[in-house]
tRNA 2-thiouridine synthesizing protein A (Candidatus Hakubella thermalkaliphila), 80 residues
Amino acid sequence: MEADATVDALGMYCPMPIILTSKKIKELQAGQVLEVNADDEGIKEDMPAWCRSTGNEFLGIEEHEGEYRAYVRKVSQSPG
């Protein structure tokens, strides 16, 4: 999947991947896609939940050898 920006949260555990996502998404324009790289399995539940609570669009997650790439589309200019 093509992303406009990336957050590297490898080696970090909850809640850091979500905190970094929240900070970075504020820098994006509506419609842009953020890729979040993490190795904390919790991201599989945390990222969709964060998207539901913030109104951003969860596009999916890819897993490869214990690393996860989550994709989020910024829906509006409201705070992420």
